TrEMBL record:
InterPro entries: GH, GH_1_N_CS, Glyco_hydro_1. Keywords: Glycosidase, Hydrolase. GO terms for molecular function: 6-phospho-beta-glucosidase activity. It comes from Clostridium saccharobutylicum DSM 13864. Pfam families: Glyco_hydro_1. Belongs to the glycosyl hydrolase 1 family. This is Aryl-phospho-beta-D-glucosidase BglH. GO terms for cellular component: cytosol.
Length: 487
């Protein structure tokens, strides 16, 4: 059986991690433009203004803004059927609350989409991928303000109307469930939320120093739910053929032991991290377990109004898309050995290997997740829109890059997807994360590489941005040509 005939093979990018040109052609400051680079041992730092003589990874990134034709041609050589990318909100509305859009920003994405379509590559567009205009954070505390819903709807309506004949697949927010966590990095990137105290800081601070207010965070997340639903409603008014989806970070959780308390803790972690946001966006209503969680944690949920309930019900999504990198374990034992991961860490699984950055490799977890989602949301199309392996790549004297470790990672995960398709899962596409090297969102590093294509750009700001093909480039090309049969 294997993958469907018209399966959407491709790769995924985020504008703030690839484009650069952070202040060109009228673009306003976005949140990542104020975040300095870091590494495994140095926490990420943010300042409310640009510091001189400091390195900001997003300012030039890998220069996709000026090299998009070359990069899309390379994607076409691999045989891409789809390219997931994001529109940087600050290119279209530089301050977020502008009266009129920036024509130069709109024209740039016209050119990018035209280049994709030239090679029969279907754009899959994320409307907000951690790229909120900084002015909306500073002036409105991001989605904590109801006003930001209106600014978002104005922005997405502009995009829908402009690109309605070029883009069919849309995602409203990247990893929207980042808002369920107390990590300030996730809250700021995902919700644009900062406390008034933090906004008044005049010196750089680490994300660990930022304050988390759970009630404010869930108000902001609710406002994102409403904004997403309104976007779905508006998109369907503009083009009935639009397929508009969510995007969640799906992280498979296992109880660390058969201790019933580990199992119950795992259940809560799984439902609130993986299921909660999707249930609201797929079913159009808050699940009872989420309301119970609010009561248990003294979170007043009177922000869920009757009018909002109607909007959520009307604006349900057309497809479910998600990122999958790792699995983690849940333990009630405070002394258990911990390990990191995408957005959030957990207890170490003794049965799994991990990357250099502590991300546990678990292709079986992807198969489990696909079957779970297929059962939870019957008949809803599914798409894996992020999956990849960050590693240190060595350039040999002849310029070759032998990244067998990356090929092994993709091979095992694609095999898991293939088996899920055999199980009857309605999987329609797969876009690997970082088909070309980009800035890591979590660490701000270029040293941590994901791509099939190497970019000569480094964390000290050196490099000429030249592109070269890794061994995985040729492997993925064969995989796509064979529709996943040759892996």
């Amino acid at each position: 059986m294997g993958f469907p005939k018209n399966f959407l093979w491709g790769g995924a990018l985020a504008s703030n991690q690839c484009e650069g040109a952070y202040d060109e052609d009228g673009k306003g400051l976005s949140v990542p433009d104020l975040v300095l680079g870091g590494d495994v041992n140095t926490p990420r730092t943010i300042c409310s203004y640009i510091l001189e003589d400091r390195f900001y990874p997003s300012h030039q990134a890998v220069d996709f803004y000026h090299r998009y034709k070359e990069d899309i041609q390379l994607f076409a050589q691999m045989g891409f059927k789809a390219l997931r990318l994001s529109i940087n909100w600050g290119r279209i509305f530089p301050k977020g609350d502008d009266d009129k859009p920036n024509e130069k920003g709109l024209a740039f994405y016209d050119k990018v989409f035209d280049e994709c379509l030239k090679y029969n590559i279907e754009p899959i567009v994320t409307l907000c991928h951690y790229e909120m205009p900084w002015n909306l954070v500073k002036k409105y505390q991001g989605f904590y303000s109801r006003q930001t819903i209106d600014f978002y709807v104005k922005y997405v309506t502009t995009c829908f109307e402009r690109y309605k004949d070029k883009v069919k697949y849309w995602l409203t927010f990247n990893e929207i469930n980042a808002g369920t966590m107390g990590e300030p990095l996730a809250s700021l990137y995902g919700l644009g939320y900062m406390s008034q105290e933090d906004l008044q800081r005049t010196k750089p601070c680490t994300f660990d120093e930022l304050k988390d207010n759970p009630e404010h965070r869930y108000i902001a997340l609710h406002n994102e739910f409403v904004a997403s639903a309104l976007a779905v409603i508006k998109g369907h008014e503009i083009n009935l053929n639009f397929m508009i989806g969510n995007m969640s970070s799906h992280l498979t959780w296992y109880p660390h032991t058969c201790n019933p308390k580990d199992i119950l803790a795992c259940q809560e972690k799984d439902t609130m991290f993986n299921d909660f946001c999707a249930d609201v966006q797929v079913r159009g209503e808050y699940p009872e377990y989420a309301l119970a969680y609010f009561r248990k944690n003294n979170i007043d949920y009177s922000f869920i109004t009757e009018e909002d309930k109607k909007i959520l019900k009307e604006g349900i999504i057309d497809m479910y898309t998600f990122s999958y990198y790792i699995s983690n374990c849940v333990s009630v034992d405070p002394k258990v050995e911990k390990i990191g991961g995408n957005l959030v860490g957990g207890a170490k699984n003794p049965y799994l290997k991990a990357s250099e950055w502590g991300w546990q490799i678990d292709p079986d977890g992807l198969g489990f997740t696909l079957n779970k989602l297929s059962s939870r949301y019957p008949n809803l199309p599914l798409m894996v829109v992020e999956n990849g392996f960050g590693a240190v790549d060595k350039v040999e004297e002849d310029g070759s890059i032998h990244d067998d470790y990356r090929i092994d990672y993709f091979r095992s995960h694609i095999q898991a997807m293939k088996e899920a398709c055999d199980d009857g899962v309605n999987l329609i596409g797969y876009t690997s994360w970082g088909p070309i090297d980009i800035v890591s969102a979590g660490t701000g590093q270029l040293y941590k590489r994901y791509g099939f294509i190497y970019v000569d750009r480094h964390d000290d700001g050196t490099g000429d941005f030249s592109r070269s093909k890794k061994d995985s480039f040729y492997w993925y090309k064969k995989c796509i040509e064979s529709n996943g049969e040759i892996i």
